[in-house]
Amino acid sequence: MATAMPVLLVLTTAATGDQAEALARQVLQRRLAACVTLQPVRSLYHWQGELEQSAEVQLLIKTDPSRLPALHAAVLELHEYTTPEWIVWPAQADAAYGAWLTGSCGLRADGSPPAPADSPGGVDPSG
After folding, report:
1. Rounded to whole angstroms, how far apart are CA atoms 85 and 79?
2. Could you tell me the sign of the dihedral formed by the alpha carbons of 103, 105, 110, 116, in that order?
């Protein structure tokens, strides 16, 4: 990759598709993420001394590193689980995708706050 931009991938799960979609919409509306991918999964795990299994929906959240603290706080605030899954991976994106991701998180390519809406030079959040 010629020019790479740092991005973060965050993994969490929700109990239902409706809960996953509501959480995804909230973090997107707050500009804490650029994209959230929802995938149905079957999870097996230890919980309170028992082996559990459940159908869940996995959320893969793509965000700018500067948004991580606010994203984490929002997930803890909005999540229905007592102990939501929270796994973060650093990743690299090519320049075009990284610029779209940064812009979709409400930031300029250099990570600074966005220009006013009527200013030229904004990044098209539609990719």
Report:
1. 10
2. positive
Residues whose CB falls within 8 Å of the CB of residue 88, separated by 6 or more in sequence, listed in order: 8, 9, 10, 11, 68
* Average pLDDT of the segment spanning 25-29: 97
Q: What is the DSSP letter of 74?
A: H
CB-CB contact of 125 with 82 (8 Å): no
- Of all residues in the chain, the percent with pLDDT exceeding 90 is 80
C-beta of residue 32 within 8 angstroms of C-beta of residue 75: no
Q: What is the DSSP string of 23-70?
A: HHHHHHHTTS-SEEEEEEEEEEEEETTEEEEEEEEEEEEEE-GGGHHH
**Domains observed in the chain:** 4-104 (3.30.70.120)
Burial of 67 (0-12, 13-18, 19+ CB in 10 A): buried
Q: What is the pLDDT of residues 59-86, one digit of tens each?
A: 999 999 999 999 999 999 999 999 999 9
Instruction: Check: pTM over 0.85? Answer yes or no.
Output: no
